[in-house]
């Protein structure tokens, strides 16, 4: 069940977007403040935690040995799983909603091709790593920014994922785990998502629940740090006019490049802080 | 793999604690804005989030509502990445269902439900990281979330686990202590003021003679937990 | 993005220092669930308390003790709305039940409140008995999702509230923003609707719903049936956004909300960007 708004409230939101002054004072292409932290769950190879508005997500990455598929014997696998915690929203009906399937589809479409799966091979034809990326939605804000937040959290989690280096003894077939060598996943090409929501004839990013209720459709973009669009999809029921979209392409591209840079800076800074103080991170 | 010594001759446990010592426990109230009440509890490496919605009117199952008191609905989920081995499903296994039912019974007796006829109170628990004593951490988190929601409750319900290792009773078991061997384990939930037991559950074989000391140990653990929780709530009220 | 948080932090510190009088830290006794409040049997027990087997009065929530004559109650920091007769509330229509001649209204209390067809004013302020035609027209008065302001008329035995809008002050709300805060943060005052000096109109519902909208001229209140759909001017919009963020900040700091505290916070905030 979604939030219902009265006609005049919707009108207020739509007119506000037209004036480039949204209900909370933001401009159309402003994000709310994003808090990211990584390496929060010690039982995982890597993890990330994000809060964007009232949307809160935790991502855990775990790696397991598995056999490679027959046709591609030297590539690892990425598996996404999304669970919406009952905590997330009082109105949410987990059984009926396809939200987690949509998220899995969008993320695996866009992120899997951007990761070097060959680096996840242990022994060609015998063992590869399967990387499980488990996304747990702790608090559900608006639908459009959920995907944006997921992508940031996934990237943060993959960034600090440490996979132990394993060598296989050719004769005994016994794997030995190296004590100090680790594999890291190269995230430099992993895209981030930006979802633009159509309100009236304008587009906004990071829509709130109220704004979501007064919109009819949105478009999601996956953009790499170089500004390439790797995935694009229109969601929800309404229709779009192609003309204003062209303007949006450039805006989201610039925004995404900025976001990538900010995120990487934040992650690097965070890892430095952790090294120097050895602090145990405390959530929230 | 060599068997880890769970309890050394010098009187230390494998993580360096004494038998009667709890792990480091910290808690926080009001972690989410959307919910009526929420809390976060950390007991060692076990981390639990709790949210409470309600008392509210439900749209879905009106027929279940009671005319003289509120109904309580619980759900316990264990994140797929919370355990050392990845889990396939976050909820729906026997242990989760058992814990869900236990929680419901505990809070039906602790919350003053008769004040809220025709309403429903939802208590949701999410384990983020599991390192033993999940059930007691859940009870502590749920209690704090209920207090945060301003729902009347008889007392600050608290819980603690205890087990017997090498004939010594010890509190607040970690995952290693819980899983290694045939150690007996007991979890007690308590109304601390009147020392009334709301829930008691044990697994493993316990010698009848050891039972007394085990229950006492668990209750003492509960009282320690209660002191920490009281401190947290007091801080929250003072804010 | 990051600079914004910075300025909010500074503002927090400033407002916190200066608006101490409005702060929760009033010198009141704080209790936790299970704490004994009194063992005097002559006292009456109010909300947030219960009597145990030794007939002692025990608190059941965490909050501060409030004593009015013999009535002792404990008020928690955060709770659902407990309605009292005469309160002004803002609510959202969730259901139109034309069979039972009533609307169901979400007012952040534990059960949905009820607005009877007989307790609304008809468009134009006409006073007469409601006919079957009016019953059929119910959805055109208030539809699902509409926001209304109303007064609590009575409390039913199961705790749900009966509302009325029998005054031109109350009725449907037009363009503006709704904010939800904890009901305990709204200070009880004589008036809950204000035209603030910064040029906006605000309704502080006792139920914790706050409505901000552009200023309305005195005397043109229509009971809300003629809703104005003209676009709101940019400056009004900016003021509303700023005020909204101020109130959210105050609420996060658990400071009491009333006209002066809000305008004060607004004045401090003018140094910073609205977002």
From TrEMBL, chain A:
Coiled coil: none
GO cellular component: cytoplasmic exosome (RNase complex); nuclear exosome (RNase complex); nucleolus
Sequence ranges assigned to domain Exoribonuclease phosphorolytic in this UniProt record: 31-164, 191-233
A Pfam family: RNase_PH
Main location as per UniProt: cytoplasm
Domain of life: Eukaryota
Keywords: Cytoplasm, Exosome
Location(s), subcellular: Cytoplasm; Nucleus, Nucleolus
Single GO BP term: nuclear polyadenylation-dependent rRNA catabolic process
Name of the featured protein: Ribosomal RNA-processing protein 42
TrEMBL record, chain B:
CDD domains in the cross-refs: RNase_PH_RRP41
Ranges for domain Exoribonuclease phosphorolytic: 21-152, 155-220
Entry's localization field: Cytoplasm; Nucleus, Nucleolus
GO cellular component, one term: nucleolus
This protein's record includes keyword Cytoplasm: yes
InterPro entries in the cross-refs: ExoRNase_PH_dom1, ExoRNase_PH_dom2, ExoRNase_PH_dom2_sf, PNPase/RNase_PH_dom_sf, Ribosomal_Su5_D2-typ_SF, RNase_PH
Superkingdom of the source species: Eukaryota
Pfam families given in the database record: RNase_PH, RNase_PH_C
GO molecular function: RNA binding
Subunit note: Component of the RNA exosome complex.
Record-linked PANTHER family: EXOSOME COMPLEX COMPONENT, EXOSOME COMPLEX COMPONENT RRP41
Family: Belongs to the RNase PH family.
Name of this chain's protein: Putative exosome complex component RRP41
From TrEMBL, chain C:
Ranges where the Exosome complex component N-terminal domain occurs: 31-67
Domain RRP4 S1: 80-154
Compartments it resides in: Nucleus
Biological processes per GO annotation: CUT catabolic process; exonucleolytic trimming to generate mature 3'-end of 5.8S rRNA from tricistronic rRNA transcript (SSU-rRNA, 5.8S rRNA, LSU-rRNA); nuclear polyadenylation-dependent rRNA catabolic process; poly(A)-dependent snoRNA 3'-end processing; regulation of gene expression; TRAMP-dependent tRNA surveillance pathway; U4 snRNA 3'-end processing
Gene Ontology cellular component list: cytoplasmic exosome (RNase complex); nuclear exosome (RNase complex)
Main localization (coarse): nucleus
UniProt keywords, alphabetically: Exosome, Nucleus, RNA-binding, rRNA processing
InterPro entries xrefs: Exosome_cplx_N_dom, Exosome_RNA_bind1/RRP40/RRP4, KH_dom_type_1, KH_dom_type_1_sf, NA-bd_OB-fold, S1_RRP4
Residues covered by the K Homology domain: 176-215
Domain of life of the organism encoding this protein: Eukaryota
CDD domains: KH-I_Rrp4_eukar, S1_Rrp4
GO MF term (any one): RNA binding
Family statement drawn from the similarity comment of this UniProt entry: Belongs to the RRP4 family.
Name by which UniProt lists this protein: Exosome complex component RRP4-like protein
Native species: Dinothrombium tinctorium
């Amino acid at each position: 069940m979604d939030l219902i708004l009265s006609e005049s409230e919707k009108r207020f939101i739509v007119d506000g977007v037209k004036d480039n002054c949204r209900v909370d004072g933001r401009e159309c292409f402003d994000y709310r403040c994003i808090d990211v932290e990584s390496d929060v769950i010690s039982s995982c190879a890597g993890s990330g935690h994000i809060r964007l508005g009232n949307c809160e997500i935790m991502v855990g990455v775990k790696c397991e040995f598995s056999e490679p598929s027959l046709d591609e014997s030297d590539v690892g696998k990425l598996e996404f799983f999304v669970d919406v915690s009952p905590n997330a929203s009082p109105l949410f009906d987990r059984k009926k909603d396809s939200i987690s399937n949509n998220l899995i589809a969008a993320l695996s479409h866009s992120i899997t091709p951007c990761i070097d799966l060959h680096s996840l091979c242990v022994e060609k034809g015998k063992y590869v790593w399967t990387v499980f990326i488990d996304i747990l939605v702790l608090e559900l804000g608006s639908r459009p920014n959920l995907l944006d937040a997921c992508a940031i959290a996934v990237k943060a989690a993959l960034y600090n994922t440490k996979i132990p280096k394993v060598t296989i003894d050719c004769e005994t077939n016994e794997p030995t785990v190296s004590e100090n060598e680790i594999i890291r996943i190269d995230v430099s090409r992993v895209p981030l998502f930006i979802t633009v929501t159509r309100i009236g004839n304008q587009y906004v990013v990071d829509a709130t629940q109220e704004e979501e209720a007064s919109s009819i459709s949105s478009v999601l973009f996956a953009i790499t740090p170089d500004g390439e669009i790797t995935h694009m999809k229109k969601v929800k029921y309404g229709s779009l006019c192609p003309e204003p979209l062209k303007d949006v392409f450039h805006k989201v591209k610039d925004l995404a490049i900025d976001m990538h840079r900010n995120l990487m800076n934040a992650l690097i800074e965070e890892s430095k802080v952790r090294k120097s103080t050895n602090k145990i991170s405390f959530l929230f | 793999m060599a068997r880890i010594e769970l309890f050394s001759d010098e009187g230390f446990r494998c993580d360096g604690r004494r038998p009667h010592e709890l792990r480091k426990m910290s808690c926080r109230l009001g972690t989410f804005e959307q919910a009526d009440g929420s809390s976060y509890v950390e007991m060692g490496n076990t981390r639990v989030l709790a949210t409470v919605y309600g008392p509210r009117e439900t749209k879905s199952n009106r027929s279940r509502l009671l005319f003289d008191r509120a109904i309580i609905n619980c759900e316990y989920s264990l994140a797929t990445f919370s355990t050392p081995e990845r889990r396939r499903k976050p909820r729906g296994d026997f242990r989760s269902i058992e814990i869900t039912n236990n929680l419901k019974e505990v809070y039906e007796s602790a919350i003053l439900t008769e004040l809220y006829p025709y309403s429903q109170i939802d208590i949701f628990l999410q384990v983020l990281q599991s390192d033993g004593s999940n059930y007691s951490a859940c009870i502590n988190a749920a209690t704090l979330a209920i207090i945060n929601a301003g729902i009347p409750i008889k007392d600050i319900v608290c819980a603690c686990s205890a087990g017997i290792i090498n004939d010594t009773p010890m509190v607040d078991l970690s995952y290693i202590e819980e899983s290694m061997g045939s150690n007996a384990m007991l979890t007690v939930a308590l109304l601390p003021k009147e020392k009334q037991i709301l829930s008691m559950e044990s697994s493993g074989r316990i010698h009848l003679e050891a039972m007394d000391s085990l229950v006492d140990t668990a209750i003492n653990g509960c009282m320690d937990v209660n002191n920490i929780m009281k401190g947290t709530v007091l801080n929250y009220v003072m804010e | 993005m990051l600079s914004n948080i910075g300025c909010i932090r500074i503002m927090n510190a400033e407002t916190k220092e200066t608006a101490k009088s409005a702060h929760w830290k009033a010198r009141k006794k704080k209790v936790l669930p299970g704490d004994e409040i009194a063992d005097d049997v002559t006292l009456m027990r109010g909300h947030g308390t219960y009597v145990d087997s030794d007939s002692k009065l025990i608190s059941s929530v965490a909050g501060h003790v409030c004593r009015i004559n013999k009535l002792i109650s404990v008020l928690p920091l955060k709770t659902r709305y407990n309605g009292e007769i005469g309160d002004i509330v803002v609510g959202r229509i969730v259901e139109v039940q034309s069979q039972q001649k009533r609307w169901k209204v979400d007012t952040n209390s534990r059960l949905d409140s009820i607005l009877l067809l007989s307790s609304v004013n008809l468009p134009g302020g006409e006073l007469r008995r409601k006919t079957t035609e009016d019953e059929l027209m119910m959805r055109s008065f208030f539809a699902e999702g509409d926001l209304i302001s109303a007064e609590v008329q009575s409390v039913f035995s199961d705790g749900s509230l009966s509302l009325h809008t029998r005054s031109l002050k109350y009725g449907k709300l037009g363009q503006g923003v709704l904010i939800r805060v904890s009901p305990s943060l709204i200070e009880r005052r004589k008036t809950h609707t204000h035209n603030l000096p910064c040029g906006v109109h605000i309704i502080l519902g006792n139920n914790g719903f706050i409505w901000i909208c552009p200023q309305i001229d005195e005397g043109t209140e229509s009971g809300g049936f003629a809703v104005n759909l003209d676009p709101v001017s940019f400056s009004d919009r900016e003021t509303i956004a700023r005020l909204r963020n101020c109130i959210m900040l105050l609420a996060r700091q658990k400071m009491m909300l009333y006209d002066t505290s809000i305008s004060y916070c607004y004045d401090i905030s003018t140094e910073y960007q609205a977002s």
